[in-house]
Amino acid sequence: MPFFMQERDKVIYRLMGKNMSHSVISVVGKDRIGIVYDVSKILTENRISIINISQQLMGEFFTMIILVDTAQCPKSRQEMLDIFAQASQALALDIRMQNEALFNAMHRI
User: Fold this and answer.
1) pLDDT tens-digit series, residues 30-75
2) What pLDDT is attached to residue 21?
3) H/E segment holding residue 53
4) Are 95 and 39 in contact, with CB atoms under 8 Å apart?
5) Which CATH number fits the domain that encloses residue 93?
6) What's the longest Cα–Cα distance across the chain?
7) What SS3 class is residue 103?
8) Dihedral angle over CA of 3, 21, 100, 39, nearest 10
9) Ordered alpha helix ranges (H), the chain
10) What is the number of structural domains in the chain?
11) Looking at residue 20, what is its pLDDT?
């Protein structure tokens, strides 16, 4: 089970057939060389696998959405959120991580 799920959530997700170890990471910032590398390095260091990635330039802004598998990550969800918050500051980016099911629910009309 992924590191960030409460026990009741695990049961609900199991019954729904959802993959609880998938998360969505969004990255937004001013375009520059090395953004994909910087974010990928954090994922690699924390044993988080990229399942799918999409990036786009919108004028001078860089946007990226990454679907990841956190099943092998040894850190807690809060530790990863802290790591992404620190990276956001250091890299002048907005990096956010959400559970895939939560992300989908938020974007469903």
Assistant:
1) 999 999 999 999 999 999 999 999 999 999 999 999 999 999 999 9
2) 86
3) strand 49-58
4) yes
5) 3.30.70.260
6) 44
7) helix
8) 80
9) 7-16, 35-45, 77-91, 100-106
10) 1
11) 72
